[in-house]
Amino acid sequence: MCQEGANLVARAALGGVFGTTAEEQPKTTTTSTAEDLNLTTHVHGNGKHQGDETEAEVTIFQGNGNILTLADGKFSAVDAISIKGDTIISVGSLADVQRVAGTNTPVRVLGEGQAIVPGFIDPHLHLLFTALVSNHENILNFSPSVVKTIADARAVVDEALAKKKKGEWVVGFGYDPSLVQDHPNLTLTITNVWAPENPVYIINQSGHVAYVNQLALDLAKVSDDIKDPNFHRDPNGKLDGVLFEEAVSVFSPFIPKISPAEFIGLARKTLKGWAARGTTTVFDAGIGLTSGFPELALIKSVLDDPLLPRFGGALAIQTVQPFVGFLEILAPPPWNVGAARVQGIKFWLDGSTQGFTAAVKEPYLDQPNNLGILNYEKDEELLGLLVPFLKAGWQLILHTNGDRAIDQALRVLNTAFNAVPDRNREIVHRLEHVTVVSKKQLVRAVELGLGVSHLIAHVRSWGAVFRDYVLGPPRGDRIDPTRDDVDVGLIYSFHSDSPISPVNPLQYVDTAAARLLDPTGEVLGQEQTITLEEAWRGVTINPARQLGLAAEIGSLEVGKKADFLVLGKDPRLVRPGYLHKEVEVLETWVGGQKIYKGVDITVNT
């Protein structure tokens, strides 16, 4: 299967977002080609957060041994820190800091028990689709927090049908049979009964599976004659309404349309919500899946607001594949489009573990004849795409949930690296999700100089299901093996893959350090827990290294950007597993500017 089979939720659900009239288009979102965006030459702009100076040119923050710098990957606590404009100019004792900043510099004293830490970095999420599915007027919410039984799902549909006319589409996101009682797929036998007069299109929480009824199939002109194996069939060989991988996107034209102006508002609201969780830098791992280069223009418009996190991203391979043969006409990476920094190319090698489409070496527990889907059946096909971008200086980002896909990634990357000996070795190429993986594979990743990033909510939200239903023990116990990451010396990080799981870095830290399952509190794979300090690296300095930004962000050190958080409690005093419940983000600062404010801290001058 070619790269078109590498489906993401955004590709299906963002289809049609740009289907508006010229009058509806904001002036900054009319760009539609690489040339229009000036990506065929060196791009202007620094790709960094743009904002005003702080309220005082130089400010000192004073704690009491509770400013955690993460210098050298350690908590490395200090008493004080000073910033000038967007930059940290001194760190250490109050006396040391005042010698640099000046004894008359305003001092902001932390309240009792409060702490300062580096801003959090989420290195893998999807802004546009997260914003879209936050609009429950258009995209119904079938997420696990709402749907725990098939009756719950039916209730969501019934409520929607009460407001719809005959023939109007019922579109939703978030249904996950692995987390629903008795694990029912939404086959035609169910969806045809629910909505006999309205087409239904519901996307699985993973984004790699979807469900439609017969009316939807008819409108899309899909019949039993179709040869694509990603349209699932019942035991009689008839289509059953379950879709996998690229088949999901066949129905994208039927998604309800919204105007770019409305969409920009939703996206900014989403980013501000992430800032409230302490996120100071985000990385979108799949720009352009739906509409190609116009998505860059949309993102540029979204980021035209100084009170937002830093933003980086990778282009989906589908966006740039037409340029593979002549990449020299494009500007070298990174591309700085307004406040967005685009540096990578994203490839999908397999699917979703909980969706039974991740490419695994051993069959799934509940589907003994299923090894998942490898999107590139031949290594040569993947190699032919990787090498040109490697030569051109792009970061390679490979979606690899299953160990069979990870094997392919390691093989092909090794061949690609040997083929390009003069490549930029400062770039940390990445394996994403890395859910089912052996320690031997992780050792090989270190040998190749790779980084890995885990969708760590797999442990918290899906851990019991993986162990008892999807993978079985012992595979299910050691998903996302962070202790192995640490022990073999990997550059590891944690991410949300939002909207697959919520952006909440304190929860990532909790999960990596304690591996507690929701809602029972049971520990999954105790041997894979890591220390709080090791977990903190996974949301600060390590993702900064993976993004090539460790000289600027990820720790609180002289010369770096003033990206930091004021927390309501010193996290070292909280039991791992409970930080997201007990530690409040009071303030979020990016480049010396407060972009989120909860409760004031005491100010002494």
How many distinct folded domains?
3
By CATH, the topology of the largest domain is TIM Barrel
CATH superfamily annotation of the largest domain: Metal-dependent hydrolases
Q: Please bin the fraction of helical residues.
A: 25-40%
Contiguous low-pLDDT stretches (5 residues minimum) are 1-32, 40-55, 600-605
Nearest-angstrom radius of gyration?
24 Å
Residue-averaged pLDDT, rounded?
89
Number of helices: 18
Total DSSP E strands: 24
Q: Short summary of the structure?
A:
The chain has 605 residues and is α/β, with parallel strands linked by helices.
Structure description:
Helices cover 27% and strands 21% of the residues. Helix 5 (188-194) links the parallel strand 8 and strand 9 (200-204). The chain starts with 8 loop residues before the first helix and ends with a strand. It folds into 3 domains: 3-43 and 126-254, Diaminopimelate Epimerase, Chain A, domain 1; 58-118 and 567-573 and 581-604, Roll (Urease, subunit C, domain 1); 287-553, TIM Barrel (Alpha-Beta Barrel), CATH 3.20.20.140. The chain is built from 18 helices and 24 strands. The protein is of the alpha/beta class and 605 residues long. It is globular, with a radius of gyration of 24 Å. The strands form 4 sheets. Strands 6, 13, 14, 15, 16, 17, 18, 19 and 20 form a 9-stranded mixed beta sheet that branches. The longest helix is centred in the middle third of the chain and has 17 residues, at 260-276.
